[in-house]
Amino acid sequence: MGLNMSTFKQLTILHSNDMHGDFLAESTDSKLIGGVALLSGYLNKIRQEVPHVLYAISGDMFRGSIIDSEFKGVSTVDIMNMLAPDIVTLGNHELDYGLPHLLFLEKCTKFPIINANLYIKMNNSRLFNSHKIFHINGMNILFIGIVTEEVIAATKSEGVIGTLIDVDDAVEEIGKICNTYKTTDIDLTVLLTHIGFEADKVLAAKLDTQWGVDIIIGGHSHTFLDKPECINDILIVQAGTGTDIIGRFDITIDTDKNTVAEYKWETVPIDDKHCPKDEEIEKIIHTYKTQTDTKYGRIITKFIKQLTHPRRQQETSLGNLFADAMSESLGVDIAFMASGSIRGTKLGPVVDLKSLMEIFPYDDAMHMFKWSGKSLRKAIKYLLRDDFLDNETEFYQVPKGVKVTYDFNTKELISLNVNDQPVTDDKIYTIAIQNYHANNIASFFGLSDEEAFEFGDKKCVSTSCFDIIEEYLMTHQHLDRVIEGRIDILNRPY
Fold it and tell me: Does 110 fall in a domain?
C-alpha cells in the first residue's frame, strides 16, 4: 500500500508485563536467556535504531525474586529507573508491600505510573494519574491504566482504598477519560491493563467504538500469543511473563482518521544472540545479588532429585511437596496450596535459603476453616471450572490422601476422597488456606459466607507460610515427590 507520509506516521511500542523481579539471566543451551541487562541492551539498541519508540509495562514489576523481596521493591525501582520505561500501570503485586510503601516507591520512580481505578473512598480521589498523553512524531498518544479487581484483596487491610469492581465499571471509566480528552485530537489510544487476557477480550467487546480505543496491552494471566487478538477492531496483546521476551508493535498511524493503518506485532526473544548486554545495569544487579547471596546462602536440605513446577494449571511434584508440608505441619485434612504462589519451575536437589525464597516469596498467613463435605465438594467443583486452564483463576495443589476425579466435558465431580476415604456431605473437614485466598473465599472457592463459616469463623493457625515450609524442609532430609494423580481431570483438552 502506498502511504502519504504527511498523513501516515510511524510509532514503535515495546511492552513487557509480569516481570516479577526477573533480573538475572539464565544459562541454557549454550546461551543466556532473559535478565534485565540483556533486556536493557535490547531497549538501548531499538531506541538508537528507531526514531519514535515508547516502552510500556503492564503491571507486576514486583515480587518473585529474592532481590525484590529483600529490599521491598526499592531495588526493583532502582533497576527499572535504568530501564527507563515511558509508562507503567499497576498490577496486583505492586501492593504486596502495602499501600503506604507503594506510594513511597512511586516517589522513587523516574517514570510515570498510571491507574484509572484505585481511589480513596472518602472523597473518590484517584491515587494515581488515570492516563498520560505522549506527544511524539507530531502525534498525540493516549495511555490509560486499569488494574485487576484482585487488588481489592491486597488493600482490604488499608480500609480507605477502593477500586472498580468489574469490567463494566472499567468500561464506564475508560469512556469518561476518552470522552474528556478526545478534544486534544488523540491519534492512538492504548489501554494498559492488568486484568488477564480473557477479561481483556470481554473489555474490548464492551467498549464503544466512538471512544477510539485502538490497542490493549495486557498482563496478569501470563499469556503467550503468536499474534494479536482482534475484537471490536481493538488489537489485544500480552507478552508472557518475566524478561525472556518483549512485545513489539511497529505501527503506521493514520493521523487523519486517528486509527491504526498498518501494524506488525511480534514477541522478541531476549537472549545474548539477539541482545547486547548493558554492562552498567549488570553491575547494579550484581551489587544487590552479592548482598543477598551472602545473607541467604545457607543450605536447608537436599532432595533425592530436582522437583519441578512446570505449569500452574496442573499437579506438580514441587506443589505436592509444599501441600504435604502445609497439611502435615498444621494437622488439617486439606491445605490448599495456591499454584501461583510457587514462582518458579524447579527447586533442588540442593536447596539453599535464597532459592527457596525465590520460588516461594510470599510470607502469608494460613487460616483454618471447617467445611462440611457438601461445601467441600462444591468448592472443588468450582476450582476446576474452565477458567483455570487459561490461568484466569487459581489452581491449587492438594496433599496426599486427597483424590479428585473430575470430568471436564460433563463438568461433574466424579469422586472425591480425603484421607483416602470418600467425602460425605455431613462430615466436617478442616481446611487451611493462604491469607490472600482466605479473604476472598467467594471468588476463589465459590462459597457463600453461610457455607464457608457455617461452623465458625476462620482461625489464623500460622502467621507465616514460609516458616512452615522452611522448617519442614530442614527437618525432613532426602525428600522426594512424584505426580500421582491427586487431581485427575478426565477429557482435559490441554
Answer: yes
Mean pLDDT check: name the lowest of 71-80, 89-98, 128-137, 361-370.
89-98
Dihedral angle sign, alpha carbons of residues 364, 366, 372, 373: positive
In a domain, 70, yes or no: yes
Q: Which residues contact 268 (CB under 8 A, 6 or more apart)?
A: 42, 245, 246, 247, 248, 274
pTM: 0.74
Range of the domain at 124: 8-288
- Phi then psi for 29, rounded to 5 degrees? 50, 45
- Output the 3-class SS for 284-333: HHHHHHHHHHHHCCCEEEECCCCEECCCCCCCCHHHHHHHHHHHHHHCCC
Pick the closest to residue 67 from 21, 105, 25 (CA basis). 21
Same domain, 45 and 109: yes
pLDDT at 434 over 70: yes
Task: Determine the number of helices (DSSP H) and then strands (DSSP E) in the chain.
Answer: 15, 30
Grid coordinates standing for 119?
Answer: 481511589
What is the total count of domains within the chain? 2
The CATH number of residue 99's host domain is 3.60.21.10
